[in-house]
């Protein structure tokens, strides 16, 4: 074996070890390896990953590069699923805000013109108000004051949902960044593996 080939093989081994250490220092990757080897799931960078929620890899008869590649692939898939779940949560909250705005619009349209007057709300609007925890008059006769109290309560609910929505958006952005980072790392890892193997094969010719 010539000197150039020996240095290439040593370099490949060192890069593989360095990549392994880097991935193991990442909480998500470490969790995946530990679960795959029979340990308990640990806290990753964005939350606790349960063993039942992951596709564990069998590392028997795998070389280091293949094992690390499998771990990184698992991490990317877990982040992708978490991102989908977060997007569904945001969509559901948007739908809830839209429904509350619709109720507010209908309630405003039904508001009595004079303080001493009263109105009877239709059954559908009455039901929606009850479902959202709004206190309704027992006779379903709504005065201006009753309508104003209900409107204030509905606006409070929307404000609360908007605050939660902001946190949801920040979490989704974080998950998006981590998902992109995981896929970029996996792509770079594949390229480096291919380049190293091509170099070794080239040196053996």
Task: Provide an overview of this structure.
The model is unreliable at 1-57 (pLDDT under 50). The protein contains 5 helices and 2 strands. It is mainly α and 205 residues long.
Radius of gyration, rounded? 29 Å
Beta-strand content estimate: under 5%
**Largest beta-sheet details:** 2 strands, antiparallel
Poorly predicted segments: 1-57
**Structural class by secondary-structure content:** mainly alpha
Strand ordering within the main sheet: 1-2
What would the principal axes of the Cα set say about the shape?
A: rod-shaped
What is the total tally of β strands? 2
| H/E element sequence | HHHEHEH
Q: Count the helices. How many?
A: 5
Chain-averaged pLDDT: 74
- Please report the distance between the alpha carbons of the first and last residues: 12 Å
* Proportion in helices: over 70%
In short:
This protein is mainly alpha-helical and 205 residues long. It is built from five helices and two strands; from the N terminus they run αααβαβα.
Topology:
Blueprint: H1 3-25, H2 27-36, H3 64-110, E1 118-120, H4 123-131, E2 141-143, H5 144-204
Antiparallel strand pairs: 1-2
List keywords for this structure.
single chain; 205 residues; mainly alpha; two-stranded antiparallel ribbon; 5 helices; 73% helix; 3% strand; disordered N terminus
């Amino acid at each position: 074996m010539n000197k150039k080939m020996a240095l290439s093989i040593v370099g490949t081994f060192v890069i593989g070890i360095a990549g392994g250490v880097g991935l193991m220092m990442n909480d998500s990757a470490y969790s995946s390896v530990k679960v795959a080897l029979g340990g308990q799931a640990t806290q990753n960078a964005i939350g606790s990953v349960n063993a039942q929620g992951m596709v564990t890899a069998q590392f028997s008869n795998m070389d280091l590069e293949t094992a690390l590649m499998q771990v990184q692939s698992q991490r990317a898939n877990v982040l992708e699923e978490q991102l989908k779940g977060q997007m569904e949560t945001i969509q559901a909250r948007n739908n809830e805000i839209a429904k509350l705005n619709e109720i507010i619009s209908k309630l405003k349209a039904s508001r009595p013109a004079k303080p001493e007057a009263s109105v009877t709300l239709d059954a559908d609007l009455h039901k929606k108000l009850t479902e959202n925890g709004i206190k309704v008059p027992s006779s379903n006769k709504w005065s201006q004051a009753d309508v104003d109290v209900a409107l204030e309560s509905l606006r409070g609910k929307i404000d609360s949902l908007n605050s939660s929505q902001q946190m949801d958006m920040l979490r989704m952005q974080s998950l998006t960044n981590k998902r992109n980072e995981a896929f970029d790392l996996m792509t770079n890892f594949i390229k480096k593996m291919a380049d190293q193997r091509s170099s070794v094969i080239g040196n053996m010719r």
